[in-house]
Write a structure and sequence with these properties.
The complex is a heterodimer of chains A (about 300) and B (about 525). Chain A is elongated and about 75 Å long. With about 300 residues, chain A is α/β, with parallel strands linked by helices. Chain A contains ten helices and 13 strands. A six-stranded mixed sheet of chain A has the order 5-6-7-3-8-9, sandwiched between helices. In chain A, strands 11-12-10-13 form a four-stranded antiparallel sheet, sandwiched between helices. Helix content of chain A is about 30%, strand content about 30%. Chain B has about 525 residues and is mainly α. Chain B has a domain of about 220 residues. Chain B is about 75% helix and about 0% strand. Chain B contains 19 helices and two strands. In chain B, about 35% of the residues are buried. Classes of the chains: A alpha/beta (about 300), B mainly alpha (about 525). Chains A and B meet through α2 and α3 of A and α9 and α12 of B.
């Protein structure tokens, strides 16, 4: 299936063969990732997969030990102003200066970004129900996330980077964050990169995803392509079998007797043909959720 | 682990093994340094009256440093509140092991100093006071946890005990007149009373924290918070540039502390000292000593200013600051500007205070003729300023690197040298000691100069410092070197190794200009 987002412009993020070790632990292992301009890119993986480490490389907080990282065509370590000035970032731990009031945080952040939209910032503050006089340290977890999101969005960044934005938040705040993502990409040419292990949210908003596991990128594709290329096939064989035959593209299989369910990677028509060639009847052919695709990929 | 006490003691020792070790070394560093230097001059007479004040201050300093190390290891995290144990149990088994540790530290440290230098410092008195101080400060911290009132509460607790401790060395508001050598029954009763009070206050504080209340629920404090909160919530002016905004943030959080500490120290010190000490010569010496202390306080200023972590305990670059669209050079320069302003204001406060006191002496009794052995050359005044800058900016750069190993390395080098000198002074003849001392002086001077040159060239190669800045820095250093050489030629006791040492020391004036952005780069982009 053709890539629904072929972008003539250069990628906004280009990570090439980055490896990162912390002592004996390899956090990233020969990782290459290209994030095209425009749209929402979801980076999914379990805890400790390497998502935050990869994001830190993109922001210049970690230097690539091997390989290269380019953001807007620039090295974020060598050119922090040129890259960070166009990025809005919300960290996983919502690192904000606790001692500032919300109003002070807005004034302070405004100084760093020439594109800061004061009117928009006030609208966001109002929408997020944040008191300008409240100290950041006294905000609840959800309010803190909103405050971080406010300062990340108010300067209308070309690239919005969200690291586990919904982690530990209630559905209302999650709705705000997803809304912010959608609002950002509604502006033409803007890009969102967000990492998450809440796959239902990724499934709702992402156009493209990358699955990262144990420091390696297992899969990068558009959401539509991934859905089309992963199927659950339930096959009925003529006789009961203890060990089902291998089907091309199988990621996992389960069942007993004559009926077995395969989770496969491949196109539906090709998988059906292969199944019939094994002498089985296709009883069911269903699309997988992103959650099921992720789990089967990881387990495989 | 089968009991709460064992679990909590294990937690303290396991969590704080490095802090305790560093605290032990740090607490003994100053006494070792001073006593070694005195030993170098000749045998120390333990009954010498001048040593009494020194003994009192060194004991206090040691208690403070090791106590701080223990506090960093004792964590009363909110997760402890959900343990199935009474508050009093938790408090006892947080407090008692800390008290035992500091008691053991006192016994070992004071005993060791007595053995090494032939001192007669009282182990029992130190071992009796230190754990009580530990308990009081822990209680104060838990009582006013995470509140702006913390310094007031801790200061009150420490101040009350400190005044009582001072009274053991003579009249409460005068210079120490005799050493505290015996813990009398009355002393013991007071110390037990303080400990009991600390326990009660600690239980009250932790109980309150455990149920989610804070000190701000107390009515008087709640009113003060409301009043100050409304007044402080003024709209901010807009900043002209990112660097200006960052400068505002740094100054607001860190820059004002050194001038504040200097001002409070001078006010409190003069309130205690000046009414009682009438000899103008002693007052003048005390003023000069206070100028020298600026450099010591500069260590704390440097550590605070250079900490760009997301909290006080973590010097690794925080993600919020790390993702500001600022260059490493801009961040480094902003922090140095804050340190410079801090140092200038602090020094001005001290200088103005000293000038006022000297002016009062001149007007009332006239400035005295100082003793022949009094040494305060013309460069003494600028040296107090430069010394404070060198220490504050140097330690800021060290802290900016986010590598605690560097701190540990500097510490270990200093301690190792003191220990070696201490041993050498016992073993080698005086002429050999002098030769060794001169050699070390020269080596240190060359080393410091080498570090400066390395920092400047490396920063220049990485475009972390402008060429003009390097040129200006070089001119400053050459100017200082010229002054040192000319003054050295003028005075008869300046030796070549001492001159090399001073030139190396002078180079530290400009080292932070390169070291700070290098440290930021190393910390921000790991």
């Amino acid at each position: 299936m053709p890539d629904p987002f072929p972008s003539p412009s250069p990628p906004i993020i280009d990570v090439q063969r980055v490896t990162r070790q912390f002592g004996s632990k390899t956090a990233l292992n020969d990782v290459s990732l290209t994030v095209p301009r425009g749209g929402v890119f979801g980076l999914i993986g379990g805890n400790g997969a390497g998502k935050t480490t990869l994001i830190k490389h993109i922001l210049g907080l970690l230097k690539a030990q091997h390989g290269s990282v380019r953001v807007f065509g620039l090295d974020p370590v060598q050119n922090p102003v040129g890259t960070l000035g166009r990025i809005g970032y919300l960290s996983e731990d919502r690192d904000l200066p606790d001692w500032m009031r919300v109003g002070q945080l807005m004034s302070y952040t405004q100084a760093f970004f020439p594109n800061w939209d004061e009117k928009f910032a006030e609208e966001l503050r109002d929408a997020f129900d944040l008191d300008a006089r409240a100290f950041v340290k006294n905000l609840s977890r959800g309010q803190r996330a909103r405050a971080g999101l406010l300062v990340a969005l108010a300067h209308r960044p070309e690239l919005l980077v969200l690291d586990e934005p919904s982690s530990g938040l209630d559905p209302v705040v999650r709705r705000d964050i997803l809304g912010a993502i959608i609002r950002t990409i509604a502006d033409e040419g803007r890009t969102v990169l967000f990492s998450s292990h809440l796959l239902d949210e990724v499934e709702r908003v992402a156009d493209r995803i990358a699955i990262i596991h144990e420091g390696r990128v297992l899969l990068t594709s558009s959401m539509d392509e991934i859905k089309d290329q992963h199927r659950r096939l339930t096959l009925r064989f003529e006789q009961s079998i203890s060990e089902p035959p291998a089907l091309v593209g199988t990621l996992s299989r389960a069942g007993q007797g004559a009926e077995w369910t395969y989770v496969c990677s491949g196109e539906s028509r090709q998988l059906r043909s292969a199944a019939e060639a094994l002498g089985a009847t296709v009883v069911d052919d269903a699309a997988l959720t992103l959650d099921e695709i992720f789990v089967s990929r990881i387990q495989n | 682990m089968r009991s709460i006490p064992i679990a909590m003691i294990w937690e303290l020792l396991n969590r704080g093994r490095w802090q305790l070790l560093l605290g032990f070394i740090g607490g003994n560093a100053m006494p070792l340094l001073i006593l070694t230097a005195l030993k170098f001059e000749g045998e120390i007479d333990p009954d010498e009256p001048a040593l009494i004040t020194m003994q009192m201050m060194l004991l206090l300093m040691h208690t403070f440093i090791f106590g701080a190390a223990i506090l960093s290891a004792v964590e009363f995290a909110p997760r402890a509140y959900v343990l199935p144990a009474r508050t009093s149990t938790l408090v006892v088994w947080k407090m008692v092991p800390a008290m035992i540790l500091i008691t053991l530290d006192m016994i070992v440290s004071i005993g060791g100093l007595n053995l090494l230098f032939g001192m007669k410092w009282s182990i029992t008195c130190a071992a009796a006071l230190a754990p009580v101080g530990m308990a009081l400060i822990m209680a104060a911290l838990w009582f006013a946890e995470r509140s702006p009132w913390l310094p007031v509460v801790v200061g009150t607790a420490g101040g009350v005990l400190g005044l009582w401790y001072k009274s053991r060395w003579g009249p409460m508001f005068s210079m120490p007149q005799y050493a505290w050598t015996v813990v009398t029954p009355a002393d013991a009763a007071v110390l037990i009373l303080f400990t009991a009070l600390a326990f009660v206050v600690a239980v009250v504080g932790v109980s309150r924290n455990r149920r989610g209340d804070t000190i701000h629920n107390l009515s008087g404090i709640a009113w003060a918070d409301w009043w100050s909160g409304d007044r402080a919530a003024q709209p901010l002016k807009s900043f002209g540039s990112p660097a200006e905004a960052q400068y505002w943030a740094e100054w607001t959080t860190k820059g004002w502390m050194l001038p504040f500490v200097v001002m409070i120290s001078l006010v409190v010190g003069s309130m205690i000292f000046l009414p009682l000490e009438r000899d103008p010569k002693v007052i003048i010496k005390a003023l000069i000593g206070a100028g020298g202390m600026l450099s010591a306080i500069g260590i704390v200023c440097g550590f605070l200013a250079g900490n760009c972590g997301s909290n006080d305990a973590n010097t690794e670059f925080g993600q919020f600051l790390g993702t500001r669209p600022l260059t490493d050079l801009q961040i480094g320069q902003t922090i140095l500007k804050v340190v410079l302003k801090s140092v200038l204001i602090s020094w001005s406060i001290w200088a103005a205070f000293a000038a006022t006191v000297l002016g009062l002496i001149q007007v009332t009794v006239g400035l005295p003729q100082m003793d022949p052995d009094f040494f305060w050359p013309w460069w003494g005044l600028p040296a107090t300023l430069l010394g404070c800058w060198i220490v504050a900016a140097g330690f800021a750069s060290l802290t900016l690197s986010g590598r605690t190993q560097l701190w540990a390395l500097v510490f270990c080098i200093v301690i190792t040298m003191m220990v070696i000198f201490s041993l050498v002074s016992k073993v080698l003849p005086r002429e050999t000691q002098m030769m060794l001392f001169a050699m070390v002086q020269a080596l240190i001077g060359i080393g410091l100069t080498g570090i400066t040159v390395w920092c400047l060239t490396t920063a220049r190669q990485r475009s972390l410092i402008a060429g003009r800045m390097v040129l200006a820095a070089g001119c400053i250093w050459l100017g200082l070197t010229a002054v040192i050489i000319v003054e050295g030629l003028r005075v008869s006791y300046a030796t070549l190794p001492a001159t090399i040492f001073l030139i190396g020391l002078a180079s530290l004036t400009i080292t932070p200009l390169a070291a700070a952005p290098l440290a930021v780069a190393a910390n921000r982009h790991r």
